[in-house]
Design brief:
Tetracycline Repressor, domain 2; DNA binding; transcription regulation; mainly alpha
């Protein structure tokens, strides 16, 4: 019997991880239950064994998207000085690689417009996840000497996620790269001490 619960947990985690990628890559309105189940090699019928509803699945996917983004941010900070960690984070966030990999990228840039139209659980998952990421950024800014790090973190996170979202929409890759480059330089100039 123990194997059954372990297998169920493993399957559930695989479903949440797959949903997290799909929700960021395609948007929550494009994810179907059958597509998700097919992604992990299961039939449609097993869905309700893992989630109470499609909305529950979307909320869990958003939570996982923010958790994986937070884990990456914490990994960037590990064994780096505050200024180096902040520079690395900004450079990775506003990079062509991040732009081109929606499914594993920051959920703020991908889901902001979608989240406003979702149910309460999904909006709450988005709000809490965004607050945690902004709080981590505020700590980084505080460590490099900003007195009003909380306000600056809100501004910087908004600018970075907006720039990334805009860069993803621009068809001309050169122009898209330029948006990322200009915002990266401006954010670093504001965030890092002179």
């Amino acid at each position: 019997m123990r194997y059954g619960s372990e297998q169920r947990e493993k399957t559930h985690n695989s479903l949440v991880e797959a949903a997290s990628t799909l929700v960021r890559r395609d948007g929550p309105d494009k994810i179907s239950v059958s597509e998700l189940m097919k992604t992990v090699g299961l039939t449609h019928g097993g869905f309700y064994y893992h989630f109470s509803s499609r909305e529950d699945m979307i909320a869990r996917a958003i939570e996982r998207a923010f958790a994986s983004t937070q884990e990456r941010l914490e990994g960037i900070c590990h064994n780096r000085g505050p200024a180096d960690a902040l520079r690395e984070y900004v450079e990775r966030y506003l990079s062509p690689e991040h732009r081109d990999h929606r499914g594993t990228g920051c959920p703020i840039a991908t889901l902001t417009t979608h989240a406003a139209l979702l149910g309460d659980d999904s909006r709450q998952a988005f709000e809490q996840g965004a607050a945690r990421l902004t709080s981590l950024l505020a700590r980084m800014l505080e460590q490099v000497g900003h007195a009003d790090a909380g306000a600056l973190a809100i501004s910087v996170m908004s600018e970075m996620s907006g720039a990334l979202a805009i860069a993803r929409v621009i068809v001309d890759r050169g122009r898209s790269d330029e948006v990322l480059r200009i915002c990266r330089l401006n954010v670093l100039a504001r965030a890092l001490p002179a």
